[in-house]
Amino acid sequence: MPHSDLPASLYTAEQARALDRTAINSGVPGFKLMQRAGHAAFDRLQQRWPEVRKLTLLCGGGNNGGDGFVVAVLAQRQGLQVQLLCVGDDDFAERLSSEALQAWEWLQHESVDWQLYREQAFTGELIVDGMLGTGITGEVREPYFHAIRQVNRSGLPVVALDIPSGLCSDTGAVLGIAVRADMTVTFIGVKRGLLTHQGPEFTGELLFDGLRVSDDVYETVDVAGFITGADDVSHLLPPRDKTAHKGSCGHVLVIGGDTGMGGAAIMAAQAAGRCGAGLVTVVTRTEHLSALLTRYPEAMAVGVRSGHELDPYIERADVLVVGPGLGKNAWGEQMLVRALSSDKPLVLDADALNLLAMRREFGHRNGDNWVITPHPGEAARLLGCSVAELQADRFAAVVELQSAFGGVALLKGPGSLSFDGDALHLNPTGNPGMASGGMGDVLSGVIGALIAQGLSAADATRLGAWLHGAAADRSAQLYGARGMQATDLLAQLRLLVNGL
Q1: pLDDT tens digits along 35-89
Q2: Taking a C-beta distance cutoff of 8 angstroms, is the pair 333, 306 a contact?
Q3: pTM for the predicted model, two decimal places
Q4: For 82, 104, 214, 272, which has the most beta carbons within 10 A of its beta carbon?
Q5: Domain architecture of the chain: domains with CATH
Q6: How wide is the angle at C-alpha 96 spanned by C-alphas 160 and 12, nearest 5°?
């Protein structure tokens, strides 16, 4: 789903609360921030659904509910019909405190009618979710469970305040059940769970409002990571020198394509070429050379039978991309061992990662010039855990991957995460059309090309993930997501690396 005008920084729930506290301590009353949040959300829903005249709001007893109370007041002032359902026990109003209580008192002063939620029919044309914010721990309990289930079954558009109720703001995991929002308006800081794991499925369009919090506040709170954006393309890939030549634009060596899997190496090579590598060589099985040169005549193609034949080609290359179609047999293992013995920058994907998981003695590589790019299944094998355990906290998993293997780790999937031992980056691009074979092969070629052109492994990885997803997004806009093929990204990649 689209993400509009997001800032670069990501925050955990605790860091977001620290931003709130710091803003309040700097002189902005908490209730003023709550009013700003309600105004921001109401403005955004009116912009997207200007025809809506009836709102149903479900509010809990915390500050998330307080934001909803503000929306209810604003909606009634605008002449909308408001159905306010408060989710909680009979003593709901007595339990309110702090800014939520102030919002409640304002609501009473404005004579907004309300009811306790008791699974009654929704009368609105649109639902505002203000039930559970970032403070939820553990699985969703009653009566919230039934309220969320009714929201999801209603078929009505949903706007979530700050975060969809039931979604973990730190991990993106659904805590038993979560609201499926069409739009989420998040405040002050972007919560990292909104953009990875199950977050994108439940968040819908993600909008941000900083509530006019000053820059000084942000300087006092640590961040959990950074979002890669389109501005990074122009920053990391400036226009080429007028004197550039193929030798100055880097030489990528793709190693892969065991018997029956030659296409993977070809796609990685094509992606490297389309992303600006000056030279591309493919070392593969001899039987694939004809198809390779027919499909990609610009490449240099070499057929080899054993690992020791690799040495002269490794010597001439600037970066090695190892794994596309490599296989897990003796041939592939020999190729990997030879590549690992060199000191050249490496990008490992696919069966190179599976061999790495099988042969733990390959282990950690010193230095920062190699990249591993596992999807969750491969990452789970590398870490010796289940996919479910890994996905439960993708942020912890990518840190563990980097610690175990060194270099840069890229954990693929919705909201791909990269970590270089220092900074964590999240990629917001991509779509479900990428659920087809060969996408990872293309990505490995993209990253290899960027390293060949002088980017650090960390920058090449985060930018490569962004370009890869953005190319898929452009393809989906043109032709739709279903039926997308990995090679559909090649033309879009060329446009994107040129800032077009």
Answers
A1: 999 999 999 999 999 999 999 999 999 999 999 999 999 999 999 999 999 999 9
A2: no
A3: 0.95
A4: 272
A5: 3-226 (3.40.50.10260), 231-497 (3.40.1190.20)
A6: 45
